[in-house]
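Pair request: fold both.
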Amino acid sequence: MSRTRRVFGKDFKAKVVLEVLRETETLEVLAKKYELLPTQISIWKAEAIKNI
């Protein structure tokens, strides 16, 4: 059985990155909350900072 790749929209990514930048919760907590890997959130954060 193969897993299908999930696709995330810009709005979802922006919401997650904004929460990371607020630093109210740790990266691990946010990863569990949104069912993501911490490395994926870190990549989105780096891209957002680069493009600002």
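--- second member of the pair ---
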Amino acid sequence: MREPSDEDLMSAMAAGDEAAFRVLCQRYAVRAVAFARRFVGSGTDAEDIAQEALLRVWRAAPRWRPDAAFGTWFYRIVINLCLNARRRLPFLGLDAAGERADPAPDALAGLERQEEDRALLDAVATLPERQRVAILLTYWEGFSNAHAAEILGTSVSGVETLLVRARRSLRLSLGAARKEGQGDDA
């Protein structure tokens, strides 16, 4: 027996089927929280964003028309909520989250990796919004450029341009951070 498509589930939800909504939540909630956490940088806000996005899906189910794939429409909702959250609240750096224990046997390598990850996330957070969304959709979410373009409402070449600019900015930003770090050691 085949799994119902997202579009089939939306049709069932339009008729008030709560079980269909639970299936969509199972498919998308964790991914939405992860995306929102990368975008806004705060776990609590990310969970609220994902929950609000799913609530909007439930409310919109009777009016939903499959003009685009459900996933595209859903990620557009999540992105809009992330953008709204970023406009409302100042970004808190990863330092505010504190350090977490590293279970890896090589603690030094784990710390270096954490510093690299922190530097990368900080650099991504400074990108213009559309570049940041393009980077998150393609590299963290694993979407193709075509799917990212559909979510962003632009062309594939537009996404590629955003990615080129974002990568260039990240290289410059991370290169400058490395040089500053090396200057501290000298």
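Observation on the second member. The chain has two domains: 1-92, 106-186.
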